[in-house]
Design a protein that fits this description.
Elements: H1 2-29, H2 35-61, H3 63-81, H4 86-100, H5 103-114, H6 120-128, H7 130-176, H8 193-199, H9 202-231, H10 237-264, H11 268-287, H12 295-309, H13 313-323, H14 329-358, H15 361-389
Keywords: Membrane, Transmembrane, Transmembrane helix
Protein name: MFS transporter
Transmembrane segments: 33-59, 71-96, 149-172, 206-227, 233-258, 270-289, 295-317, 329-350, 362-380
């Protein structure tokens, strides 16, 4: 758990580092801050492809070895960005995406082998806290590094941290990669096999398709909340940033809480529609914000939004691993993340388009709240159908 959490946090920090540095670096490079949206989209496009291909790589080379390669790719991506040319950012984003995509399938493969089934929700959720922890590390450490070594130096220090973590992971590789099989065929021979596997299993297919909107909702929350609170609600930038930080913190707590609930109280197939419903309610309430709302209520709604829209991942990934045949959790996770990352890529532009047409960010949260309500109803129906058929928990 410690190794997978550290790897997840370092890779996540790497993807956040360039956006954190953007206000300092882009003026020097001659680019506008709007380019950061394209940079993030390219990261997740790369992650879509690499997560889809990662299942066979994990089986062939081992989850830790693939995680080490991911860390080195992230270090390479940060080093390329440090070259200080706008065109380098394209290569940087693609390298970061290639490194980001396989990390979650690799860690899921390890945890599926080593975690008792009655603890899968909590352990997968704990592992997934590495993503917001990486964001916190980037936000806290990278600006300080800029003050000491400049933005290029900060990128290189973050790259070095990824390389060091890859070296540290070597010490546990032999024990955790003991199930690797060199006879497994190369993923490039059949890159769409994970998708066919997922569509051949109705419950896995339903989860994967619903995760598309889950991923979109998460990115729309974190991408636009500060702008919405400053432009529509009228908060100062610093105050809006504090609310975003509280929202991210609620996401960390939510991941652990929902994991515990899934293990001890409400099985994942029942919990996921409830989380979708709470996301829908939170998004619709966010769309209703006006300056007459008390600050405490705005904070409470934002934290509920974060606890659900950021906190769902661990329960979802644990359910994917539980449904996957023995030894194939990484392959199925990589296939389902293809849909999740597609939602991450497509969601924010759709949100922005709706906002542009209506001249109000509230309409974006209204649309996504309505869509998430539909997803909640579909997931609840899927869960009921599985119960009638007698499918396992």
């Amino acid at each position: 758990m410690a190794v997978t959490l550290a790897i997840q946090a370092l890779v996540s920090m790497a993807t956040f580092t360039v956006p954190v540095l953007a206000p300092v670096a882009l003026p020097e490079l001659g680019g506008s801050i709007a380019l950061i949206g394209l940079f993030v989209a390219l990261i997740y496009l790369g992650a879509m492809v690499s997560s889809l291909l990662s299942g066979s790589w994990i089986l062939r080379y081992g989850a830790i070895r693939i995680s080490q390669v991911c860390l080195l790719l992230c270090g390479l991506g940060l080093s390329i960005a440090a070259a200080g040319q706008l065109w380098c950012l394209v290569l940087s984003a693609l390298a970061l995406g290639a490194g980001y995509g396989p990390v979650t399938p690799a860690s899921s493969h390890i945890l599926a082998r080593t975690t008792p089934r009655h603890l899968m929700g909590l352990m997968f959720s704990l592992k997934q806290t590495g993503v917001p922890i990486g964001g916190v590390l980037a936000g806290m450490l990278v600006p300080s590094l800029v003050g000491v070594a400049g933005w290029r130096g900060a990128l290189l220090v973050a790259a070095l941290a990824c390389v060091l973590m890859a070296v540290i992971a070597q010490y546990v590789r032999e024990g955790l990669d003991d199930d690797r099989n060199a006879q497994v065929s190369q993923a490039r021979r059949d890159p769409f096999k994970p998708l066919r596997m997922i569509f051949a299993m109705p419950r896995m297919r339903n989860l994967a398709l619903c995760s598309l909107l889950f991923g979109a909702m998460q990115l729309c929350l974190t991408t636009y909340l500060v702008s919405y609170l400053t432009e529509d609600y009228g908060l100062a930038l610093v105050s809006a940033g504090v609310i975003l930080a509280l929202t991210q913190g609620a996401g960390v707590v939510g991941r652990l809480l929902w994991g515990w609930v899934a293990d001890h109280w409400l099985e994942p197939r029942r919990l996921l529609p409830l989380l979708a419903l709470l996301m829908a309610i939170s998004s619709l309430l966010t769309a209703a914000f006006t300056q007459s709302w008390p600050m405490a209520l705005v904070v409470a709604v934002s934290m509920l939004f974060g606890a659900t829209a950021i906190g769902w991942n661990g329960v979802y990934l644990a359910e994917v691993a539980r449904l996957a045949p023995a030894g194939l959790a990484g392959q199925y996770t990589g296939g389902t993340l293809f849909f999740t990352y597609f939602g991450v890529v497509a969601g924010p532009p759709l949100f922005a388009g709706v906002t542009q047409l209506s001249q109000s960010m509230a309409s974006g949260y209204l649309l996504f709240g309505a869509l998430m309500l539909l997803i909640a109803l579909l997931l609840w129906r899927f869960a009921g159908t599985a119960s009638v058929r007698g499918d396992p928990g």
